[in-house]
Amino acid sequence: MHALTQAMQLAAESGANTLDIATVHHWLSTEAAETELAVRGLATSADARALLDSRGFAWRLHALMGEPAQRLVELSELLGARGIVIGARGLSAFDGLLLGSVAQQVIQNAHGSILVVRAPAAP
């Protein structure tokens, strides 16, 4: 939610009142995608949509299927977005190198501004 809060702040500062939010789910069978993708997208984004609604922002939900970084970059290009705001899970540099990171992959492949937002460290 920290990334969403930052996105709302940037949108408000630039005069935008609508945010595109995306959820990306692992590959589903064709039948499952037809029946479950929208439901999963709505479930996954419920807290984000509630926060946007409470702050008076309009939103467009994009429920996508596939590799998260690739799909986020493709969506950004399709929408002609000015930038991408993405959260980071805060893995160590070593873990990030071994596992890969959606944020790292987006940084490497996106064309445009990218803001990576880390959650505050737990006390």
> What is the chain-wise order of helices and strands?
HEHHEHEHHE
CATH class category name: Alpha Beta
Question: Low-confidence parts lasting 5 or more residues at pLDDT below 50?
Answer: none
Number of strand segments: 4
What structural class do you assign from the helix and strand content?
Answer: alpha/beta
> What would you give as the CATH superfamily?
HUPs
Gross morphology is globular
Q: What is the radius of gyration? A: 15 Å
Structure summary:
The chain has helices at residues 2-14, 30-44, 46-54, 68-79, 93-99, 102-109; strands spanning 18-25, 58-65, 83-88, 113-118. It is α/β, with parallel strands linked by helices.
Question: Which key features would you list for this structure?
Answer:
two-stranded parallel ribbon, 123 residues, Rossmann fold, 52% helix
